[in-house]
Design a protein that fits this description.
The complex is a heterodimer of chains A (251) and B (375).
Chain A lengths: L4 E10 L2 E11 L4 E5 L6 H8 L10 E3 L2 E2 H4 L10 E4 L11 H12 L4 H14 L15 H12 L6 E5 L7 H18 L2 E5 L3 H7 L2 E6 L4 E6 L1 H7 L3 H7 L3 H5 L1
Parallel strand pairs in A: 3-8, 3-9, 6-7, 7-8
Antiparallel strand pairs in A: 1-2, 1-4, 4-5, 9-10
Chain B lengths: L2 E8 L3 E9 L9 H10 L5 E11 L2 H16 L3 E3 L5 H12 L15 H34 L7 H11 L4 H23 L8 H39 L2 H7 L4 H39 L4 H11 L2 H27 L5 H33 L2
Classes of the chains: A alpha/beta (251), B alpha/beta (375).
The complex binds adenosine-5'-diphosphate (ADP) and magnesium ion.
Chain lengths: 251, 375
């Protein structure tokens, strides 16, 4: 089967500084794929590459076997095929929550007003924000903004969902609820999920496969099912990361 | 001085540093440099011993002191006995070493010679002109597809921008234009009354407001008011990932953010300019009738005689261009913003400075063109 997303020998840079080199991995249809690593190792940057927000040379990143550079210009790639939840939610601040969620629906679907309103209410209630339709992003808390961002990301039922640290800044109940929602979306709609995270609870609870980005060697030092990684990896940074970092402190 | 270190040399080869007292960032204390100098000045010294005799309390200064000593001894291959260092301090020192080091620093300013500086400024101007031209190209593609009906802009958003750059700007435009008219009139009265030519105040105020001051003043006001707001808004959107979110939701930033703002300001600027010109003339009138024996009727009649339709259109054409420039520069600078609050401030400043400069240069170009074609 052609992988949903495939990355081949990707080098990530800012200006001339190399953040990570030689990244290669495949993400299969229906996976919950985790990108893990210490903060500052380049997880968000990798997400930017995968989303086409940072320019990349040809033959590095593929969606369904097609080069990303040709895919991102196809109408419907953004919004319909992929949805993104950013680290801080990234709601459009001049619009209410309802308008945020409704905008993609208005733009890309032939639905009428009433249906759009109903779908907006549905999506907001999925993330536990029913009744907040007419609030502006500045009027709700950071965690709520994030959940609203998720409602917007799933507005068009995309095939692939990207999350940048979804549970950071959420209380444990909301984080658990989010994990359940992600699992539910994957099970019922068969979507592929790519999550950047360092939340151990969700790593073990929902991840089907993970890659570990290592700051020191600047590349992937472990790849596999999270539980097995902890049991079988002999890389001390990976083990330290997956067992709450106690090992590194002792040096 | 409460945090004290003392140096003794034993057998010419062992340096003993005794650390005494209460070390605090708020108090005076010994500095590592002196010790390092003394130790390095004696080549016979082979190793360094640290002694903690009567250490009452310590904080970051002591850790820093020790790290400096350890590092310079390590660099000179001197052995240091660290066994005496209290456990807490030793752990913190070790912790500070486990942090991975980024090998290059982020791009920053380096010291440069005057020639390098001139070269860099030249390149900067060249590149920013080039990016602005590229941006304007994309913007025009957007404008043309908007006119052709291929791109829609959100009505409510557009109405809000129109209100913001139009109606809400009236009070400040009123105030400034009125005062500018008043000032021009007073200055000319002073000169013209020497020749008994008071009546020509009306000509001066009328023509200068219509042709120049009306559009330049609105241009400058709108750079500071609206261009800055555009840059700051879009810059903040970048900081909050909102612009990335637009892109990954499939919206073009040009069509979504820039187009409504540019169209709104290009439409509103001529109206503001007309408003400003008339208010300026009104200001001149107030000054003239209070400072001379001119009557309202004579002043108005003289203004009507002096100002012709050409002057009126010159002002309007220029203000369309200024509106476009202010909005386009504001948005373009905003989109170039990086990811911190400080960058937003910088972006806003650059946007205002650039658009005011652009307005003045554009006005000079217009002056040449209009005088060549004799309008
Ligand atoms: N705009 C930028 N310019 C230069 N370096 C950057 C920029 N953004 C991030 N970096 C660097 O890239 C590295 C990875 O950042 P990021 O991907 O945000 O990390 P994280 O894994 O925590 O999401 C960091 O070392 C950071 O210093
Ligand atoms: Mg990040």
């Amino acid at each position: 089967m052609v992988p949903k997303i495939s990355v081949k020998n990707l080098n990530m840079t800012y200006d001339n500084y190399v953040i990570m080199r030689n990244l290669s991995f495949d993400i299969q249809q229906g996976e919950i794929f985790l990108i893990i690593g210490q903060s500052g190792c380049g997880k968000s940057t990798l997400l930017k590459y995968l989303l086409g927000l940072k320019r990349v040379s040809h033959q590095k990143i593929f969606y369904d076997g097609k080069d990303i550079n040709s895919v991102i210009n196809v109408p419907g790639f953004y919004g319909e095929k992929i949805g993104v939840l950013y680290q801080g939610g990234a709601l459009w601040s001049s619009m209410t929550l309802a308008e945020n969620v409704a905008l993609p629906l208005e733009t890309y679907t032939p639905l009428n007003r009433k249906e759009i309103e109903e779908i907006v209410t549905l999506k907001l209630s999925l993330v536990g924000l029913k009744g907040f339709e007419n609030f502006y992003p500045s009027q709700i808390s950071g965690g709520m903004q994030k959940r609203a961002g998720l409602a917007r990301a799933i507005a068009l039922d995309p095939e692939i969902l990207f999350f940048d640290e979804p549970s950071a800044g959420l209380d444990s109940v909301s984080a658990k609820r989010l994990d359940d929602l992600i699992l539910e979306l994957k099970e019922s709609l068969g979507i592929t999920v790519v999550i950047v995270t360092h939340d151990l609870a969700s790593i073990f609870a929902i991840g089907t496969r993970a890659i570990y980005l290592d700051v020191e060697s600047k590349t992937i030092t472990a790849m596999g099912v999270p539980h097995e990684l902890l049991a079988s990896s002999n890389d001390k940074n990976v083990i330290a990361f997956l067992s709450r970092g106690t090992k590194t402190v002792q040096g | 001085m409460t945090g004290i270190a003392e140096l003794e040399v034993e057998n010419e080869s062992i340096a003993i540093i005794s650390i005494v007292g209460a070390w605090s960032i708020y108090e005076k204390h010994s500095h590592a440099e002196e010790f390092i100098e003394t130790i390095l000045a004696k080549p016979s010294i082979q190793s360094v011993e640290l002694k903690f005799v009567d250490l009452k309390s310590w904080d970051s200064v002591l850790i820093n002191f020790l790290i400096c000593i350890l590092n310079s001894c390590e660099a000179k291959n001197l052995t240091v006995n660290v066994d005496n260092i209290p456990v807490g301090i030793r752990r913190l020192i070790e912790l500070s070493k486990t942090s991975p080091v980024r090998s290059t620093s982020p791009a920053g300013q380096k010291k440069s010679t005057i020639l390098e500086f001139i070269g860099r400024v030249g390149l900067l101007i060249f590149f920013s002109l080039r990016t602005f031209l590229g941006f304007t190209g994309k913007l025009w593609v957007g404008i043309i597809s908007f006119i052709g009906g291929k791109v829609k802009i959100r009505g409510r958003e557009f109405a809000l921008v129109l209100q913001e750059v139009g109606a809400k700007a009236l009070p400040i435009v009123f105030l400034i234009s009125f005062l500018v008219g008043l000032i021009i009139a007073f200055v000319s009265v002073l000169q013209l009354s020497q020749f008994g030519a008071n009546i020509y105040v009306a000509d001066l105020v009328g023509i200068s407001m219509m042709r120049e001051m009306g559009c330049i003043m609105t241009g400058i006001i709108m750079s500071g008011r609206t261009g800055a707001a555009f840059a700051a808004t879009i810059g903040t959107m970048i900081v909050n990932d909102e612009v990335d979110a637009l892109q990954t939701a499939g919206f073009s930033t040009i069509n979504f953010l820039v187009l409504p703002r540019v169209i709104a300001l290009t439409l509103m600027m001529p109206l503001l300019c007309i408003f400003s010109s008339f208010i300026g003339i009104f200001g001149g009138l107030c000054a003239a009738i209070s400072a001379t024996d001119l009557t309202i009727v004579r002043y108005c009649a003289q203004t009507a005689k002096a100002v012709c339709l050409n002057d009126f259109f010159v002002g309007i054409i220029k203000s369309c261009f200024f509106g476009f420039l202010v909005a386009a520069i504001g948005c373009q600078k905003g989109l170039q913003c990086k990811r911190s609050a400080e960058d937003v401030g910088l972006t806003t400043t650059t946007a205002v400075v650039t658009s005011i400069t652009a307005i003045i240069i554009m006005d000079a170009i217009f002056a040449v063109i209009f005088s060549l074609i004799g309008i």
